[in-house]
Fold this sequence. Notes:
Layout (H helix, E strand, L loop, with lengths): L10 H10 L5 H10 L4 H14 L12 H5 L1 H8 L8 H15 L21 H12 L3 H14 L2 H15 L5 H16 L4 H12 L15 H12 L2 H9 L14 H12 L7 H10 L4 H18 L9 H14 L5 H9 L5 H4 L13 H5 L5 H13 L20 H14 L5 H11 L8 H14 L7 H15 L5 H6 L7
Helix pairs in contact: 1-3, 2-6, 3-6, 3-11, 5-6, 5-24, 7-8, 7-9, 8-11, 9-10, 10-11, 10-17, 14-16, 16-17, 16-25, 17-24, 21-22, 21-23, 21-25, 22-25, 23-24, 23-25, 24-25
Amino acid sequence: MRPVVKCSDPLEQDAGFIEETDPALIVQATVDRLAAGMAPERLLKAAGIAVSRSTELPADHHGGPVHPVCGLHPVLAMSRRLDGAASWVPIVQSVALANKHVHSDDMGPTLMPALDPLPVTGDADSQKAFLDSLWHRKPLAAERRLTGALSALSSGQVLDLLLDIAVPRNSLDDHYLLYPVYAARALDALGWDHGDIVLRPCVRYLAGNPLLDTPSRDTAYDGYYDTNQRAFRAFSAIDELIDRHGLLERGGAAGAHESAAIGALGERLGELDDYDRVAELVAQAMADGLSLAGTAEALSYGAGLLSLRTDSGNPFNSHFHTGINARRWLLTREGIGARTRLRALLSWACGPEVRLMRDTMVWSASAEPTALDRLPRQSAAIGAAIEALVRGAAPLDIDSKGNVNDFHLPKEVRQVMALAQRHEALGFDAAPLFDRLVRLTATDDLSEMHVYKLVQAAYEEYHATRAPFRWVHLATAAKHVYCCYAFHPHAVYDQARPFLAAE
């Protein structure tokens, strides 16, 4: 019988704590550890290990380690922006989610066997063998080669290999790209010393058979999956754009002189109703001289505009922002090849959960100037007004509709968006408002970390985007917090709150 993977102490004990604690006790037990001085990074690393080695990866992206691991980087980043006991709440949410999945009848517990590595080095043949094991759906061989690759290649080189499979499959499910990228970001923050444990389920996911991702009973989704498969088979058009426009020869950092071009492209993208035009417009902008970084900034601005136009009330719809944020991060991550970066950037609009938003584009992105003039003029008053609207949202039950895509936001959210736009137009420091949104985000235990991921992605995009265009990211964060806060209960937060004196 094969042994199971183990870590050295104290990490093994920490992971065991998350795997073995009764879910009814995990919140208080986690708060107790934080109060005793345990570092948040230590608990998050243990959560990533536990949920990766002790839960079953589902056939799709709902359950197992996918969303808990993708949430590790946002949780840590948001926790660090809060003070005192308030900073513990995101950590408690992450640990509780990992514990919940381990103890779920649908996901856990399971055991990850120790495997002997297969060598993957810098030579083309061994790397091709790794990619072939992924492409031909040989998950055990792929996991063994992953272990070998991590011992011989840089983390960026390993991620680049995974993205060779992941980027085209983004057309079938956004998480084929998001899972490896967010897993890598978590490992960058928490350490790569156990990267094989965290990435093995990711590799197993990539080594699945996405063309069979169709429901066996609910024929209502047949058209959805058929559309995704057509998009996947058409991915070669992205490579054709790269080659036709000679984009591999383009690059460089964005310059101050590019502001007008960035704004023009972003606004053109933000006006689209047909997302199939995105890749061509982005490629043409680069061919006309816009730098790679400038193009990514314009796409970020356009993505923000599009996200503000939708009235979708689905709390899991964070992929406009997480998708562009993941791609912009790849532009700066060492070890990622030029073609990988371009393929990822041009395919932003190909993901099914991005394309689903086309039918919900019912609003204009920005508020009318006369509406803005009627809003408060002080930063604190604007923040308080946003929070009052969020907390006053009518409670929603996720089970009250058969499909989360049937939820639509009420008109009150337009006021939230306008207040955020007003805050930026008046030139106030965005940090206090983002921190207020983080505190509201920390109450969420329903969205499987989607609101965490969106708010952190919006925060990063805000700070990576020049002043005239960054307001869309602040407004999107406020809008999504409003969307998610209404979904109840906030069970984990309610359990933790009595132990948080600062709250």
